[in-house]
Write a structure and sequence with these properties.
Number of strands: 0
Shape: elongated
Number of helices: 3
Helix content: over 70%
Largest sheet: none
Oligomer: single chain
Strand content: under 5%
Length: about 60
């Protein structure tokens, strides 16, 4: 019976740790921009365009 109490206390502590980590992430702005990552794949990176221009100019 003691092991069940130990497991309950341990699981509550772990859940509390995850809850604290979640609140920290929300307060630090980790979830502020949820639109940009979804559309980022649709736009080309500027570095790749510049590299392609330099390769084309050398040929």
């Amino acid at each position: 019976m003691n092991i069940i109490l130990l497991l309950i206390i341990l699981s509550i502590l772990i859940a509390g740790g995850f809850l604290i980590a979640f609140f920290w992430a929300v307060r630090s702005g980790q979830y502020d921009d949820d639109y940009t990552p979804a559309v980022r794949i649709l736009f080309d990176d500027e570095e790749i365009k510049e590299q392609n221009k330099s390769i084309e100019s050398t040929h």
